[in-house]
């Protein structure tokens, strides 16, 4: 069976023809995010037809369309409630796209959820039934797969996993509450921690490197690799913060695999190896249960298309 | 369709004939928890036949047996890996019970999971599709229902929800790690907090009441109701600890309802009303989403039988 996976971004939309977890052909097109929803959806429908034509696939071969969209999506109805980057407000996206394409079965979910489903089934998760994807970027996002299906919560309002509390009354989070995971584990938080370490230890290798090159999410990894003690200490704290949240997820879900995505995951083994060690040492009942793997996301930009297409498979 | 629900405890086992979420007849019998597993299971099978006979139900009318068992259970295979209170070690409980009763379909899960399923479908959850049951007792237990099915994790090792971290490097938990929810929200923790408040404020009404009556999970509720300021302050802190964990669960699962069970839940509205307020004020995206209800468990001892019987319904 062939499916279409559509990944909507703030500037462009990607569409792929997917069969058995493989993208046969994909195509991207710019969107006009501030136009009326009707215009945006008709641009997407045009991309669908272009992609099918280039791929030499007839519309009637497509068993369903899956769409990943940023913002708040009601998975059950295919409505997009609101979306910061694209002008969708209570937009019946599934219905509109079905009408314009003539393909009846259209499923919509949040784009981060789709990426988690794609990585779990076809990427770093290697077909796991249960997984947690943690995205360490500007914020912290989560996508959770339980028995092969996305966990979305009532009216798809759940999986806001950057906003679990790991330190009551702790650091202020972007959402206005204190002590949330995102305030400790995001790339933004790592940069703050790096800046604080530089100020506290102005003569450290870290501070000197930062003065010359500025601070980003890689700074502490580069300086730790060069053996700077302050950088190593800062990184160890960061690993504990990230690990603390992973253990909470592990104790609730006991997934086969935890997948780390987002910009920070580009650090590779310097991040992944100590995180897996932390989880193994701290998860409840580790001595009786299979080890939980911690791995970096692998699919990059294709995760969204593959996961969106896989929405059509989950049998709801 | 009629099902049997079996609830195994450390001293006795209960069996009920269940139809449409109603217990038609139930019966209890002592068990010999230190005998060989064969003896224990044959006692349970004898209880099954006694219950059926008293109920006037033929064995062939029973579509399946569900069993709630303490300890570590593999839901997929019906094996009990280990159990503190009953002498089951890698015991193929489902298989043994099917053989002895002649009823082929036997499902087994952890007893706390069964209670959560029972409360969700037939008790305080009023048929919710998504719920979280938090048991505030000696420890903190959790049972989580997602789309009408129990969340158990890979090899049923998940849902260890008392061991999520709410305060990194905080209070020592019974499991040996620091900062876990159980170390702040259990009845045991509440009694510790009450004791500490009495020691800090020896002239308070709370301290005087405790000196006369001793300390248990009700002490602080009784004295707060009487208007003692130290008791009110202690209770408010406890509500924040419990609430903090509830919000973490709310942000991950966004359930329709959070159900509070265990001894502490007997405090009723003095606990439940401020907890619901805390969740409403702190859950992510509350302004866009339906309010999450917080309610006390209602089924008490029948939750286990009803939930065990419901294991047969969840279609795995």
Structure notes:
Chain A is of the alpha/beta class and 316 residues long. The first copy, chain A, folds into 2 domains: 2-118 and 302-313, ATPase, nucleotide binding domain (Nucleotidyltransferase, domain 5, 2-Layer Sandwich); 127-296, 2-Layer Sandwich (Nucleotidyltransferase, domain 5). Chain A is 39% helix and 22% strand. Chain A has helices at residues 37-55, 93-101, 111-122, 182-185, 187-200, 205-213, 219-225, 229-253, 269-282, 302-310; strands at 2-8, 12-19, 22-30, 62-69, 72-74, 79-82, 89-91, 106-110, 131-136, 140-146, 149-150, 257-261, 293-296. In chain A, the strands form 3 sheets. A 5-stranded mixed β-sheet of chain A has the order 3-2-1-4-8, with helices on both faces. In chain A, a hairpin with a 6-residue loop joins β6 (79-82) and β7. The two termini of chain A are 17 Å apart. The mean pLDDT of chain A is 93. The interface between A and B is large, with 46 and 46 residues.
